[in-house]
Design a protein that fits this description.
Layout: H1 5-22, E1 26-31, H2 32-38, E2 52-60, E3 64-69, H3 73-78, H4 82-85, E4 88-92, H5 99-105, E5 110-112, E6 120-121, H6 123-131, H7 135-157, H8 165-177, E7 182-190, H9 192-196, E8 210-219, E9 222-231, H10 237-256, H11 263-276, E10 289-292, E11 299-300, E12 314-317, E13 320-321, E14 324-325, E15 328-332, E16 337-339, E17 348-353, E18 358-363, E19 366-367
Parallel strand pairs: 1-5, 3-4, 5-6, 9-19
Antiparallel strand pairs: 1-2, 2-3, 7-8, 8-9, 10-11, 10-12, 12-15, 13-14, 15-16, 17-18
Helix pairs in contact: 7-8, 10-11
């Protein structure tokens, strides 16, 4: 999983092409996601909840600078190998953490991924670049998907009635962390909360019969998402209908996310899928997901979106119908889409999508 010289040179060429395109002197990257993308997977955060890291990158036509403080510099130099990668370190004392960055950027016509002085914000363009994965990033995503799936499977099978949502979240977090993955999204809902809330932060509520576990795990800067349902005892008919309908929409979205199609096209396919299952308005209550990379969603599949699906991109669709949710991360291939977060012994339903000539396996509720 270590980045190669060739991979970094590919990233550097992309960054310098941005300078030419925008007629800029320098590209400034301060977001955690952009830092990881540019360095082929290195971590710049200390506070895991922060958007901007404790180190910044400045790329000019001739140089690559890394500006950070004297606390972070040793780790980035000695453990992360960024000096060997070619970054010229400029180190400030922690009492004046961006003094060197201010010196480096003074008088430059900048493009950036955040608001910084008079820099032009190209964050949306960078999101698209982060979502266009190199083959090496695709390989990392495959490994990340397997690890997230293992963590989810192990945690879900450890859930028991009377556990609080906090305890379930702790279980999912522990299974994720011990595999070297950071759970940056860890959502849990039980019983009626699955029907009421689409983004259910865990609470002290105790599980009776039904649980939803949602994970976005980060490693090498990449973020992979997966959701699973667990039910104790037989699943009521109305709930099973909702789960089956969600599976149908999920399969439609995965099958139609093919190279050359716009996300508006895929979104409309999903809308038709909701209507065909008897739940035509459920798409209105939650976003359907979108392209992933170094953020949980680099950009969403939206009505009217002109973004075009391409080979090598990863997507996480998350269709929901009140009481049910489905989510896996896929990698778009030349011939087919690859589901990266398969849980091999999980119950599934196989959904045929005749117009695409494929059959998609979608996860059902694990009945205990």
């Amino acid at each position: 999983m270590q980045p190669t010289y060739e991979e970094f040179q590919t990233k550097l060429a992309i960054m310098r092409a941005l300078l030419e395109k925008h007629g800029a002197d320098g590209l400034l990257l301060r977001r955690v996601s952009s830092f990881a993308w540019a360095t082929c997977g290195v971590t710049s955060y200390v506070n895991t909840a922060t958007t901007e890291g404790a180190a910044s990158l400045l790329v000019t036509r001739e140089h690559c600078f890394l500006a950070t403080n004297n606390i972070e510099a040793p780790r980035l130099e000695q453990e992360s190998g960024l000096a060997e990668q070619g970054w010229d370190f400029r180190i400030s004392h922690w009492t004046t953490p961006i003094v060197e960055l201010n010196k480096l950027t003074a008088g430059l016509n900048l493009i950036a991924d955040v608001a910084f002085g008079g820099a032009s914000d190209i964050s949306a363009e960078l999101s698209r670049l982060r979502a266009s994965l190199t083959p090496a990033e695709g390989q990392r995503f495959r490994q990340l998907g397997q690890l997230c799936a293992q963590a989810m499977d192990s945690a879900a099978r450890g859930v028991r009635p009377a556990m609080t949502e906090y305890e379930i979240a702790a279980l999912l977090g522990a299974e994720t962390q011990k595999r070297g993955i950071q759970p940056i999204v860890n959502l849990i809902a039980t019983d009626e909360r699955i029907y009421r809330f689409r983004h259910p932060l865990p609470t002290e509520k105790k599980l009776e019969k039904y649980a939803l576990l949602v994970l976005s795990g980060r490693r090498w800067g990449l973020v992979c998402s997966i959701s699973r349902l667990v039910h104790f005892g037989s699943v009521p008919a109305d709930l099973q209908k909702r789960i089956d309908a969600t599976a149908r929409v999920n399969a439609v979205l995965i099958a139609h996310t093919r190279p050359g199609r716009s996300l508006d096209d895929v979104f409309q396919d999903g809308q038709r899928g909701y209507a065909a299952t008897g739940f035509p308005d459920e798409w209105r209550f939650h976003h359907q997901g979108g392209a992933v990379g170094y953020e949980p969603r680099e950009f969403l599949g939206m009505p009217g979106s002109t973004d075009i699906v391409s080979v090598g991109q990863a997507y996480a669709w998350n269709p929901t119908i009140s009481g049910a949710k489905m989510e896996d991360t896929i990698l778009v291939g030349t011939q087919r889409n690859e589901i990266l977060t398969i849980t091999p012994t999980w119950p599934v339903v196989s959904v045929k999508i005749p117009e695409q000539g494929v059959e998609i396996s979608c996860p059902l509720a694990l009945v205990v």
